[in-house]
Structures are given as structure tokens and as C-alpha cells.
Amino acid sequence: MRITCPFCGERELSEFSYLGDAKPVRPAADAGEEAVYDYVYLRDNVAGVMAENWYHGGGCRAWLEVTRNTLTHEISAVEPAAGAGARQVAK
Amino acid sequence: MSSSQSHRLTSGGLIDRSAPLNFRFDGKTFSGFQGDTLASALVANGVKLVGRSFKYHRPRGILTAGSEEPNALVELRTGARREANTKATTAELYEGLEAASQNRWPSLRHDVMSVNQLFAPIFVAGFYYKTFMWPAKFWEMIYEPAIRRAAGLGRAAQLPDPDHYDKAWAHCDVVIAGSGPAGLAAALAAGRSGARVILCEEDFVPGGRLLSDGGTIDGLPAADWLARTLAELASMPDVRMMTRTTLFGVYDGGTYGAIERVNDHLPVPPEHQVRQRLWRIVAKRCVVAAGAIERPIVFAGNDTPDVMMASAMRTYVARYAATPAKRPALFTNNEDGWRTVETALAAGLQIAAVIDARGDVSPAHRSLASKNGFTVLHGSVSGVDGGKDGVRKISVSLAGGARAEVEADGLAVSGGWNPAVGLTSYHRGRPKWRDDIAAFVPDGAPPGMVAAGAANGAFGLGACLREGFEAGAVAARDAGRNGNTGAAPTASDEALSLTPLWHVAGKGKAFVDQQHDVTASDIELAQREGFESVEHLKRYTTLGMATDQGKTSNVAGLAIMAAVSGKSIPETGTTIYRPPYVPVAIGAFAGHHRDEAFHATRLTPSHHWAAEQGAIFVDTGLWKRAQWYPRAGEKDWLESVTREVKAVRSGVGFCDVSTLGKIDVHGPDAGAFLDRVYINTFSNLTVGKARYGLMLREDGLVYDDGTTSRLAEDHYFLTTTTAKAGLVMQHLEFCRQVLFPELDVQLTSVSDQWAQFSIAGPKTRDLLKEIVDPAEDLSNEGFPFMGAREVALRGGIKARLFRISFSGEMAFEISVPARYGEAMARNLMIAGKPFGVTPYGTEALGVMRVEKGHVAGPELSGTTTAADLGLGKMMSSKKDFIGRVMAGREALVAPDRQVAVGIKPVDKARRLRSGAHIIPKGQTPGPDNDQGYVTSVCFSPTLDQWIGLALVERGRERIGEIVHAHDPLRGEDYDVELCNPVFYDPDGGRQRG
Amino acid sequence: MAEFSWEVRSPLDRALVAGPYGVRGDAGVSLTEIRNFDLVQVMARRGMAGDMAKAAKARLGVAAPDAPKAVQSSDATLIWSGPDQFFVLSRGGKHTTETLAQTFASFASLSDQSHARVLISISGAKARTMLAKLSSIDLHPDAFAIGAAAATSMDHTSVTLWRGGDKSDGQAVFNVLVFATFAVSLWHTVLDSAAEYGVAIGHSEELA
Amino acid sequence: MKYSIFSLARAALSGHKNWQRTWRDASPKDHYDVVIIGGGGHGLATAWFLASEFGIKNVAVLEKGWIGSGNAGRNTTIIRSNYGLPGNTGFYELSMKLWERMEQDLNYNSMVSQRGVLNLYHSDAQRDAYARRGNTMRINGIDAELLDQAALKKMLPFLNFDHARFPVQGGLLQRRGGTARHDAVVWGYAHAASELGVDIIQNCEVTGFVRDGNSKVTGVETSRGKIGAGKVGMAVAGSSSRVAAMAGLRLPIESHVLQAFVSEAIKPLIPGVMTFGAGHFYVSQSDKGGLVFGGDIDGYNSYAQRGNLPVMEDVCEGGMALIPMIGRVRLLRQWGGIMDMSMDGSPIIDKTPVDGLYLNAGWCYGGFKATPGSGFVFAHLLARDESHKEAALFRLDRFQRGAMIDEKGQGAQPNLH
């Protein structure tokens, strides 16, 4: 598999590490145990197109959101994580 | 003395008669020529019997001339280089080649195990599932060992592989599998378009079928066209021809696996060269021009040596000038088979007869027959009379029902052609059936891949060139190359006119999968027993699971299954195709990564100095760390380690701790960031101070620990454990980039920038005063416990000094830029000499941390909570942090959790061992009273006894209780006392003093 | 008072044996370690990438690379190392963390990496062929031109790779910065990969 | 039809014309007491135990393709009970005991071969971890031995002792571990279950659940029509999330691809099963002679049943590092299976929040060795509506309670288990 890092260009799979589904959002501090349980443990486990967190640790160390089909491994989009680089993020 | 090449034609072929080669097969010396394969050389020497089959040990010869060969497998080379199951048909001949037949004992001609044929009535498909069940113990003792000895094929080498392998990457616009007419045409079109092209050819000569079948292209004899084309391709700098290279698999993202047999054609690889190289080819497009495989017709005795595929026979005659038979017959169901007759006649051979299963034969063939004095029989071969020494007589069922016999010394068989659909099907594409050629053709190929020519079911030479050229041009264009392709090569198309015929009923065993001895009746049996699905068929009969992966057998097997189950062939379907296309040496996949080079080795900055001191090194992840420093006269590691610990506790010692992960945390929000990733607070840490921190995973369990110092308002220096350094960096980047992108914080690994030493012992300050610039205040007031700041060293070097202690002694850690690491170690020895400074290794480090009750790897097991480790109070209740919520789940705060506690043997002389379990005293060990286990132990020189840490149910409430350490693995049982885990200086006076 | 020697030791100090290696004859691959350099990692603070680039231009005479490139100024090479971050590579003592701190002030965070990396320069007729064994990146002249850079991995080891100016004989030069503690290991892998082409090994105390 | 050497010999006399189908080719009935989704080893074993142990014979096993087409037919055939945590230890030993009598129970030779499973260690820390685990095994009545380097040199002289990056120091051996012929396990359960009246229905894909209003499951919709059921059990590891989603459930499971490899057949070379503790590699040799080996999962979510080169290379590197004599042995075939990777690396066998729907999932790499045990305890759950004591910790709500069974200590990151 090759992933096109938005910063580095197309790179070999072994430069990247996988974390998993990018959809779940870390709950707010007061969201409660059920919400955090859901965030940490439950997965849609999509059979098809899925947004995922990948880390280009063997390259530029950017976290990426990779849109990939879990049935075919086809990658349709790669975006940097919100905090990759020095991009301004509203406080 | 070489025996004569009795079956070699006096002229012709692509062999180099000026380069004779000697080789040995089963101990007998033969000769051949450069340009031969082992198979062609055996043919040239009249050798018919080459191997034995898997199950029945039937005598077998050579069936094909390519990588689809099921029968002619040999052990090639000897000793550590012995290669089992090597196809004689693809092994290039070299001077001194040694080959031996396999799966036979004591000899190929007289194989005791051929007795299995007598049991053939019982040894049908899957017979072993129905027997060998009683008595149960006999399976491992008797049946299985016997089966295992009988099964298998060749013998692998039993010594380490002495050859080297490597791996490489290649990038191109278009990769082409196969250099036959379609592949060459594709390369021409793509190359002329300006594309970067890689052409992989598994043979050692490019050309594919042109080498055997000839023909006319662009008005030129095939050989001339081939030479012209190769020259044109060679003139293009971005077209790369890779012979001896098989494209074996397609992986995601346009990555193709290929194996290059760099030096298999030599007795041993030249110095500094590899035997084989694994290529990862990254290509925008792929053209599969891998050709087609001629398929057998299944009939009784079809496995007799010298029953050969028709195309193989003409390859041996035309390419190698070697004659498998002097007077062969042909059995065909199509027009293509007749080409073998033409080739044989042109070489001066006689034809015994042609048995054509079709209703009609062209007038041209009829006149050829009458001119050359052979008969054409309309019918099918129903049996072969022959044996180890080849074919003698062929029985024919004539179309009208009569029988005939043909005397011949060989039989060429052509059942039609199967496109090589492997590569196009490896992404679970299912090939589709084409009635006109009665074959499966590619469908659903992976993205970017297209098949052309015979691999796509276009068998005519003209069609191959046309399709190949078109595919090459389109592939180049898709890859963004638009140069002028010029004209496509042209040739006329030969007719195939095939009437499908799969199986001829007859007496005797008719083999479908020759290597695995799967017969037509085995398939019928499988159907009868309900193994109708093709995958069940394959698994039940082992059809297609041999080293050739069913290249010559699968489709015939499906066809027979279709016939007996009353379905069509496409309804019956194919099994899933799996890479690699040809078997690939495991060593090639490993490449350079074996022995000491299996994984990278990381060396600490003081490594060479430690080595000079005679340090014993231990592998810690990728690191080599000094474990202890033996001195003359010390009888074992324990004595050395004990000395080192005592030296620290009484004087001063130092240890390279550069392996700790070190991370610069910069930015205005660095403090806020650390507050979120640690359970305790760092934003309120004073500049110039260090603090111990504990990180959880989001699931609430402990992840890592370390000290973090605040070097400036917006700069923290964080340390991790050695084991987790990389992972913590990744985790922190995740927090920074994904979870908390609003924080202005930057992270950099500085693990390799700093050589870091722990200096510990009551005389630490004395030593430091020697080496630190006198202007620096190292007093307890000037540099208190948990102080951290930059200092100057004598000689002008700047260092970072941290007053932290893992040993429980008065201690500092000092960092210098890494290229000073070795000098630092030497200077510490000089500075500490008056105080008896002692370098210590990881063992002593471990002893002192256990004495001090610090948790480390064995306790940070990924299943412990902060509270389990006695660190629950560090969890801030005033802020959110990673893992806060999940840490509060009921089972993680349950009162009966196993928590860290100290242990001491009741018998003070007793040695402790990690991994022993804790059982309440007086109880019989069992699952219900298994209350924990010993995590870490050491011999404590300070206490003069073994001590340890354990995770024990309610352990901290039970301090003082005597429990049982149960260690059945090592046959040890003894009483231990649960105690405070801080064995040494529990109130911490020494490290603060 | 004891005399201390603060001898600088390259991590390759012992592994590197100057001279020929591998197949005899003309060396297909030249390996040169460059020892004395300053290397500073500069990382933009949130929203400050533009200011950081301007500051670089003002101080070093060239804009900081905002894509995987290595750009040359009169006395430094600026090598892209990730989004909104780059290295300043200069002769030992030329541009240190301390001297650059003023320049980048609140725009960027600086981290000294001078001792964290080993710098190896690779050239020779077989350099590309050899590097194809280690790098999954396409190093074809069209795909990896002079000044191209990559934060990548070689043989599972993180490296910064860039193509410097060609040698006078037209041969390409590839520069590799590898983590110091991995350097010996990668060095041996490089030697293993290059041996069949013949290797000329040397080192240089100063950045050219 | 009883299988034995005598029936085989009799059949040989008549040219093997009289053999019956190994299992009946059943068509779906309107209603079953229990419908099991998934005709893999676990589903078929569950059906057989329901029929043979719990007296429930009106059972259907629904298989979307051919039986054994999932992970039952694409694993590396290893059986063992060398686990270290409560929950796993007892369960896998229950399973091991059932392996030991499987052939006699089923009248089918599934070639259970107790040739030993050896986990090699390369450091003191690994030794200590294995010591802890081995002692757990012994305390639970399971055989375990800790071998030192000298013992290994004698037993496996071909391991890389002299030039290894991570020299082998010893190993944890379970002699009762070994391998079994995976397909034969499937066929054996199918054969025996069918003999007891269980309907095995192939080419029957479940497309939905029939619900009684919004609550109880009363049957399944399939590609072969609606089938009523008193209870429905899911044993579809690899597809658990997709099938559960039809009932509105989200699971603590991700699907990952695990590759496996087999070499060409060679004469006996490697005795038992061994795992390399310093790389990702394990190997055994099949009765046919192929080295069957594998390593880690590829590490990303996948339903594609095929892997990529990096892991393949990683596995072979491990193989060469451990056993340098296999360099010239050729890799013949590679394939991929889809693992139900759970959040703690341990399985789930439990009722679901949906009445009438029962779950058997989350097997990670452990599925094959669990086959008989899983069938037994799942049948127990389906028959009695309560967990068998050896499966009592495999609860679906354990993650909410914080009662994970995490052998590797990797937490809620499935690709690390």
C-alpha cells in the first residue's frame, strides 16, 4: 500500500503507523463515563470507505486522516490532522 | 567422463555448442551446453525418469518446459545450498551442477515407497480422514510419523543458508510481466511513448514463445524481429529489461513483487553478490503478458514419463535441439498441437501418429501426414503402455468406438491453452469463462493492471502483438506519457479450432494433478461425498496445492467436477488465486535482515568506552546496554553486580542512561499540554525544577512514566522509559495534532542529541565538583532535590544537570551533547577516581530501583492502574487528562485488585524468582487462590538477601502477612513476607541530603 | 585538578574505515561522512509559519522551504523536515541554536540536533542503484532533482535525505542525515548494499 | 456411515462408489429451535454440542458460502492452551481437552497432533513473563515446562544460537499443544452434527434479523428466505460487526487482516510449533510437509482477505533470523484471514442486549484453537441461557466495567493485540 502524504508525497506503507477510525471524537471533560466508553471501545468497523488516523512516523511525523476503503484498500483522500504543522486553529 | 548427448540434434537450437557443461544427476555425470536448462540437458541425454510423485511414488518424467512443471522436481546443489523441489525445467545448467531426484528410497529406479501404489485402492482422496483414529495415542506415535516421512518431497538443507539476499525498490510508469510477443510489443509502445518501463522475464532469455515457435513478424523471421526489438528497447534509457525475474504478486497501491534470480545460474554467487534479489516495483500501470499454459488431457497412464505437453516437446526440439522422443505421437484437440508435428518433422524426427479428438482435420494436415508417412486417428488416447523408461504403446479409442494401438516412444499432448490468470486474480478478481477458447480469461484485475496477448486469451501471434502494443500504449498514456508510439508490429494469426476435451474414460489411473496424485476418480469421489464447492474439492483432494499450484491441473479438475455434478464449468467456478505466482525463497523475502542484521542495533554514546571496560551488553529493545562490568576474579554476574551496587551505595557510580526517550516540549502552551497527557500537573512546575510524571492510556491504565523538567517558561524537557520512547512520541504527537490542535506546542525528539548519565551515591557531589565549573552552586540549597538547569563543565562544555534519583541515593543525571558522551564517561572516571567511582550497568540499576521500590517495565505491564502501583494520589482531580474517566471504572477501582507490594523470603537465604505466584499460606494452589505474582526480584547487597516486588491482591493491606510463593515450573515453593515495597531509605533522606 | 579532554567522537568514528571496500576496482559508490556541523531544527509556532519563513530569509538569505526541498544559502543549507519545520545545517559553530534563537524569537521553537545526527554523503556511478536497496523513494533524476529532499526511512530507520549539487563530473550527490544511535547499524547496511559495486570510504571534518 | 479402516477397505472393494455425502445437503425449514449464523468451526461445533450434549437437535447452521470458508479454512492450525489470565486459562484448557477426544467424538480424523508448542524467549524479561504464564498454567492443571538454552540446543539444534541479533535463551513449552487439520475439523463437526439431525445450509446468507416488534429476535432473513428461530447465535468472526449491525449493535471489535504462508512440501524438518519471541514469526510443519507460518496482523482495518508485502517480509525476516536453514525453502502460497480483533485481545461469548440474539465473536488470533471449547460453551449459553463457568468472563459488558482480559497489556488498540 502507498499513502500520499499531503506534505511528503506518495510513500510506502511501512513509513506509517495506524491508529484506527478517525470518526470518534474525544468527549468533553464532563461528557460522562458512557460517552468515553463509547469513544474508547465501540467501533463502526466500517466495511467500505472509512476515515482513519495514520501517523507518518517514518517521515514527517504528521498525523493524517486517510480515507480508505477497507474492502479494497483503495485510498481516496488524505488530509493532514487539524494540528499538523503550524496551521492556525481557533482557540 | 560424460555420457554422450544421445538425444541432441546435431544442429539448431539456442544452445551454445562451444560451451559444453558437465553436470551430475543422481550421481551420474552428463554433459549439456550453455543455454540448456537441467530439463533440456536431461532430455538431450535421453533421461526419461526424473522424479517420483507425492503419494503413490509413481515414476515421473518431464511434462513441461516451464515454471508450471509438476513432475520434474529435483534437489539442486548439495549441503547447505541444497534446494528441494527445484523445477528442472527452469534450472539453468551450469558447470558442475549437481542434482538429485527426490521422494524416493533407496533409488529413483527402485523406490520402496512405490509399494504405495498397491494400496492405491484404499489411498483415495481423503482416506486419512476416515481412519487412523484408534487408538487415539497411535496418531502421534505411529501413523503421523509414518505419513510425514512418506509425504513431503525434497529434503531442505539442514545448515544455515550460506548465500546472501537483498531487496530493492524500482519505480516505473509501466511494468510488464513477460517478454513474449505481447510483452515486447507492450514495451515497444510504452517505451516509444517515453514511459519508464520495466519488463520482467522469468526466463534467462527474452522472447517467450518466439524462442520455440518462431513465426514471421513484420516480414522478418521471429528471431530477427526479436533481435531488432531487443536492440531498440536497449537503446531506450528508461526501459529496463530484467531477465531471470518473475513478477509474482500484486499488492496495494501499484506495488508489485518480483524475484530476480541474480546468480542461480552459477555454482555460487560471486563474492559480494547476492543469490537472489526481491524487487518491490512501484508502477503506475501493469501489463500482464505472461502468456498461457498448455493444458493436459486426463487419460489413463497420462503420467508416464515422456508423455509431454505438445508445446514443451517443440520447445525441447526447437530451442534446445533436444529430442524427448525419436518417434512421438501427438494427441490433440486443437490446431495448435499440430505445430509440434511440424517442428518435429523439421528436425528430422518421425511421427508415430496423430490422434486428433476433433471430428475433422484440415486437408493441409492430411497431406502432411501422408507425405511424412504417419496416420491421423480420430479419437482419444485411452491408455499408455510404458513405465519408468517411457512410452511404448498408446491405446486409442477411435471416434466410431473401435480401438487402435500406436507404437511410439513419446506422446505430445495438447488440450488447449489456459491464460495465466494468476496476477490478474490476486485481488480476488474471478476470471470469466470464454466458450470460444474453452478457457478462463482475466476479469476484475487490480486497478491499473491489464492483460494482453495469450494471458488475455488472444493466442494468435498477430493478436498477441496487437493487444500487447495497444496495452503498452494505453498504459503509457494513462501514466502521462504521450510520445509517438510508431507502428505496431504485425503478424498473421494462427487458428486454434479447439474442441474441448478434458477427460478420456479408460482403465487405470488418470491423473489430474500429477504431483499430488489426484486422479479423475478422486474428483468423482469428492463430488459423491459432497465436496462439490471448488474450494472443498481442492482441500479434500489437494488438487492444485502442489508446488505448481495447479497450473496444469486446476481447470481440468474443475471441468471434471462440472461434468460429474451436472453443472457448467463457469457455474462450478475457480478457486481463489493466491500469490506468489511461482514459489519464492524465504531468504529472498528476508533479504539483508538475518543473523546480527535482523534488526537495527542502537549504540549508546559511551558504548565503545564501555566495551573497552569489558562490559557485558544486554539487548534492550534495539539497544545494546552495558549490563554489568565484570572485573578479574569475579566468579559470576551476581558478584559483579553486588560490587557495583555497594560501590554506589557507599561511594559513587555512574551509568549511561541515554536510552531514555527525551523530548523537547516547546511553546507557550507546553505546560497546558503536559497537564493533559500526564495525570499530575506540570503547568505549575517552577522553571529549573523537575517532576516525576505518570501517563495513562485513554483506557485508564498506566502507559509510561518519567521525569520532566522545566528549562524555560516555554520549554520542558520530557523523558520516557527506554521501551516506550518511540511510542510515547507518537502518542504525544497524536495528542498535539489530533486531540488538542488548539494548543501551541512543538515536540522534537532529542533522544539522540544528549548523552545522559546517572551519577549516584553519597560522593556524587564530590565527583561533580571536580567536573562542573566551580562557579556552579551544587549545594543542597543551590541545587536542591528535583532541581534542573544548565551548567558549565570544566573545559567549557555546557551540560544539563538534573537532581533526580532512581537509586534512592544522592544522585544527579547529567546530559552532554552526544558526541561528548564517550569523553564524558572517561572524564567521570578521572573526576571520580579519588572517590572510587564505579561504572555500573543495567543490572545494578535494576537492583537499586527494586531496593527503592520504584516501578519499571514488569510493573508497567499495561494492565496496572496508577493506584495499583501506589501512585493513585498523583491523579489530579482538578483537570481533565488522558485516561481520567476510564480509570474510574468499577473493576479498575475494585478493592481486591492486585497491587504492587514488596516481598522478602522468610528464609533469608532463599533466592526469589520472578514469575512465581502468590498463594495464601496453608492453601493448596489453584485457580481460585492464585492471588498474584512476583514481578521483579534482585539480590539486595544492601539488605544482604533477595527481595522483590509483586502484584498481590489487596497487597498493601496485607503487609506483614506470610504468603506462599509457588513456582511449579521451577519446582520451587517457599514462604515470603509481604512488605513495604520501599526497602531502602523509605523516608528518602539520602536522595534529598 | 584533573585535566579533562572533551574529544568529540562521531558515532561512526570506529565503524568507518577509510579506503576501499567490497569489490575491487573502480568504486561504484563513494561514501563520505561529514563530521563537524551544526544542525538546528526550527519549528514554527501556531500560525507563525509565515513569520518564520520571513525571519529565515532575513537572517539566512533564503526563504525557509515550505515543501520537501533543500535550499542553499551562502553559509547554510535549509532542509525541509516536516510541515512548517526545517533544519538549518551549517559548518560547525556557524549557525547554532543560540545564534538562531534571536532570529526566530517567538515565531519558532528551536531544538539543537547537531549531535543527534550523522551526515553521510553518497555519490558514484552506482549510488542510485545502491540507494534503491535502502530507500522506497523514486530517485530517478526526473523524480528527485537537485534540491529535492525527503523525510523518509531507509531500512526501517528514519532519515533526512536530500540531493545536493552534482559533482563536477556530473555525478549526483545524495546526503543522508541519520539518527546518531542508529548510524553504525545503517552504515553497515549501506556497506552491505554497496559492496558489490565497490566502495570508496572517506570522511571530512568539515561541511564543504 | 461409520468411518474406519474396515469401512474404507470395504469401500475400496466396490471402487468407493457407496460413500454418502459427508454431511446432508439440507434446505432450510420454516423454523428451528436454534439458528446458528456461520458455518465455520465454531458454528458447526456449537450445533454439534447443542445436539449431542444439550439435546437440542432442531438446529440449523447457515453458511453464506461453503462451510469452512472463513477463518476455519485459512488459519495456521495451531492448538494450545498456554494462556496466562483468568478467563482465558480455563477456557482454552477446556478446549484443549475437547481437542484430545475430538476424533473419537466425531468419528472423523481431524489429525489432532500434540507435537508441542514452544514459545521462545530472548531476554530475562521475556523469561519472567513466560514463567508467570507457565506457572498460571500449572496452577490450572495445564502442562507447561520452562526450557533453558541447553535444552533447546539439544531439541532444536538448527535454531540460530551463534549469530543471532537476539539469541534464543530458552522457551516455554506446552507439550500437549500442537496442530490439527483445520478443514477436517470443519468437516468432522459437519459430519457428526448432520448425523444427529442438524441442518447445514450452505450458500445461505443472512441479510437481516426478524424482530418481534422492536425487541426479540425471532428469526433471520436470508438469501434463501425467512427462517424462524427460537434463538439465534452468531458465530461469524471476521464479519461480526456487519452481522451485529443488522440488529443495531455496535461492537468493541475491529476487523484486521492476518496473513499466513505455506512453503513447498519438504521432508520433515521442524518438529513442533514454535514462536519467535524477538520477531513476528511462528511456524509448524504440516503432515503434507509444508512449513506453515505467520506473524503479525498487517495492522490496519481490512475486510480484503489479503495482505501486503511489508508484513510478509517482516515474517520471513523473523523466520530467517530464527532458523537460517530455511532460506532456500520456497514460500508457496500466501493468504489473509479477517480477524475479529477485540479491544482486549480476548473473545466475547455472551447474550446481546437484543433478546434472542447471542454473540460469539472477538477471537483475534485465538479462534481456531478455541473451536471445540467455543462450540461447547456457546451451546451451553444457547441451551441454558447462562454462561458456562469457563466462559463467564467473556462478557460483552466487561469493557464498561473495566474487567478486560488483556494478555498483551496493549489496551483498547486492537491492532496491537
What is the CATH third-level topology name of the largest domain in chain D? FAD/NAD(P)-binding domain
Mean pLDDT across residues of chain A? 95
Instruction: Using the 3D structure, state the CATH architecture of the largest domain in chain D.
Output: 3-Layer(bba) Sandwich
The H/E string of chain D reads HEHEEHHEHEHEEHEEEEHEEEEHEEEHH
First CA to last CA of chain A: what distance? 36 Å
The number of helical runs of chain D is 11
Distance between the first and last residues' Cα of chain D: 43 Å
Looking at the structure, what is the overall shape of chain D? globular
In total, how many beta strands of chain A? 6
* CATH homologous superfamily heading of the largest domain in chain D: FAD/NAD(P)-binding domain
Features:
heterotetramer, A: mainly beta, Folate-binding fold, four-stranded antiparallel β-sheet, 1 helix, 6 strands, C: 208 residues, alpha+beta, Gyrase A, domain 2, Alpha-Beta Plaits, 2 domains, eleven-stranded mixed β-sheet, 11 strands, globular
Report on the structure:
The complex is a heterotetramer of chains A (91), B (993), C (208) and D (417). Chain A has one helix spanning 33-41, and strands spanning 2-5, 9-12, 17-21, 49-55, 63-69, 75-80. Chain A is mostly beta strands and 91 residues long. Chain A has a single domain (2-89), classed as Folate-binding superfamily (Folate-binding fold, 2-Layer Sandwich). In chain A, the strands form 2 sheets. A 4-stranded antiparallel beta sheet of chain A has the order 3-4-5-6, with no helix packed on it. Chain A is globular and about 40 Å long. In chain B, the strands form 12 sheets. In chain B, strands 8, 9, 12, 13, 14, 15 and 27 form a 7-stranded mixed beta sheet that branches. In chain B, strands 17-23-18-19-20-21-22 form a 7-stranded mixed beta sheet. In chain B, strands 41-42-43-40-34-44 form a 6-stranded mixed beta sheet, sandwiched between helices. In chain B, helix 8 links the parallel strand 19 (353-356) and strand 20 (375-387). The termini of chain B are far apart. In chain C, strands 1, 2, 3, 4, 5, 6, 7, 8, 9, 10 and 11 form an 11-stranded mixed beta sheet that branches. Chain C has 2 domains: 19-35 and 115-204, Gyrase A, domain 2 (2-Layer Sandwich), CATH 3.30.1360.120; 38-112, Alpha-Beta Plaits (2-Layer Sandwich), CATH 3.30.70.1520. Chain C is 18% helix and 36% strand.
Concise overview:
The complex is a heterotetramer of chains A (91), B (993), C (208) and D (417). With 91 residues, chain A is mainly beta. Helices cover 10% and strands 36% of the residues of chain A.
Write the topology of this structure.
The complex is a heterotetramer of chains A (91), B (993), C (208) and D (417).
Chain A: E1 2-5, E2 9-12, E3 17-21, H1 33-41, E4 49-55, E5 63-69, E6 75-80
Antiparallel strand pairs in A: 1-2, 3-4, 4-5, 5-6
Chain B: E1 16-25, E2 28-34, H1 38-44, E3 51-52, E4 59-60, E5 73-76, E6 83-87, E7 97-101, H2 138-150, E8 165-177, H3 181-192, E9 197-200, H4 210-213, E10 216-217, E11 220-221, H5 222-234, E12 239-242, E13 245-251, E14 255-260, E15 276-288, E16 292-294, E17 307-309, H6 310-318, E18 328-332, H7 338-346, E19 353-356, H8 363-372, E20 375-387, E21 390-398, E22 403-407, E23 410-414, E24 417-419, H9 422-425, E25 432-434, E26 439-441, E27 449-451, H10 461-478, E28 511-513, E29 518-519, H11 520-528, H12 534-541, H13 554-565, H14 569-572, E30 584-585, H15 586-590, E31 602-603, H16 607-612, E32 616-620, E33 623-628, H17 637-650, E34 653-656, E35 661-666, H18 670-677, E36 690-696, E37 702-712, E38 715-720, H19 725-739, E39 746-749, E40 754-760, H20 764-771, E41 788-792, E42 798-802, E43 811-817, H21 821-832, E44 838-839, H22 842-852, E45 898-905, E46 917-920, E47 932-940, E48 945-953, E49 962-967, E50 972-979, H23 989-992
Parallel strand pairs in B: 1-7, 8-9, 8-15, 9-12, 15-27, 17-23, 18-19, 18-23, 19-20, 31-33, 34-44
Antiparallel strand pairs in B: 1-2, 3-4, 5-6, 5-7, 10-11, 13-14, 14-15, 16-24, 20-21, 21-22, 25-26, 28-29, 32-33, 34-40, 35-38, 35-39, 36-37, 37-38, 40-43, 41-42, 42-43, 45-48, 45-50, 46-49, 47-48, 49-50
Chain D: H1 5-13, E1 31-37, H2 41-52, E2 59-62, E3 78-79, H3 88-99, H4 102-106, E4 117-121, H5 124-139, E5 145-148, H6 149-155, E6 170-174, E7 178-179, H7 182-195, E8 199-201, E9 206-211, E10 217-222, E11 225-234, H8 240-245, E12 253-265, E13 273-276, E14 281-285, E15 290-301, H9 309-322, E16 330-342, E17 348-351, E18 357-361, H10 367-384, H11 398-401
Parallel strand pairs in D: 1-2, 1-11, 2-8, 4-13, 11-18
Antiparallel strand pairs in D: 3-7, 4-6, 5-6, 9-10, 10-11, 12-15, 12-16, 13-14, 14-15, 17-18
